[in-house]
């Protein structure tokens, strides 16, 4: 069972990070604001639903792996160890990623095909940038964690 859980966790991670990279690249590379708005208008809702599913799969499979490998007891038994520190850092990064994703999605759903206020624009762009960066921290921690296990 663990092999399948890990497979779906990695599949969801690849889809999550790949989609994030695609949308981030489109935001940087599409200089024409009309084209950018048009792409996001059509791609945004579809991406949001798919990414919500991938994030849910990541959470479920991540928790299954967390408890399967007894990482909860590892943190409690050896709080200062390299493994416990990696687990803790990854958990914090995942929690932040989830919060920024929720913020980004709420703004996106409330303002879809509407004009955003400057604050909504700032929060949307800021959360998108935070998600982009956190993806790489989480990936780095996941690789380091897997090497220790």
Short description:
The protein is mainly α and 149 residues long. The protein has five helices and no strands.
Using brief descriptors, characterize the structure shown.
149 residues; mainly alpha; 0% strand
Describe the structure.
This protein is mainly α and 149 residues long. Helix 2 runs antiparallel to helix 4 (82-111). It has 5 helices and no strands. The two termini are 17 Å apart. The model has no long low-confidence stretch (mean pLDDT 90).
SSE layout:
Elements lengths: L1 H28 L3 H36 L2 H7 L4 H30 L6 H31 L1
Helix pairs in contact: 1-2, 1-5, 2-4, 3-4, 4-5
What are the segments in which pLDDT stays under 50 over at least 5 consecutive residues?
A: none
Quaternary arrangement of the chains shown?
A: single chain
Write the H/E string, N to C.
HHHHH
Distance between the termini: 17 Å
Average of pLDDT: 90
- Radius of gyration equals 17 Å
Question: Main beta sheet, described?
Answer: none
Number of helix segments?
A: 5
Q: What characteristic shape results from the CA principal axes?
A: elongated
- How much helicity do the residues have? over 70%
Find the structural class using helix and strand composition: mainly alpha
User: How many E-type strands?
Assistant: 0
Percentage beta strand: under 5%
């Amino acid at each position: 069972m663990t092999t399948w859980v890990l497979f779906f966790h990695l599949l969801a991670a690849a889809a999550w990070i790949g989609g994030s990279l695609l949308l981030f690249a489109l935001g940087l590379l599409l200089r024409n604001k009309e084209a950018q708005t048009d792409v996001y208008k059509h791609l945004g809702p579809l991406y949001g639903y798919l990414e919500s599913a991938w994030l849910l799969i990541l959470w479920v499979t991540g928790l299954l792996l967390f408890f399967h490998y007894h990482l909860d007891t590892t943190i409690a038994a050896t709080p200062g160890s390299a493994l416990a520190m990696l687990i803790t850092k990854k958990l914090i990064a995942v929690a932040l990623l989830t919060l920024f994703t929720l913020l980004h999605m709420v703004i996106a759903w409330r303002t879809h095909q509407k004009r955003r206020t400057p604050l909504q624009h700032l929060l949307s762009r800021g959360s998108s940038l935070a998600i982009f960066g956190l993806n790489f921290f989480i990936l780095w921690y996941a690789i380091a964690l897997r090497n220790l296990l």
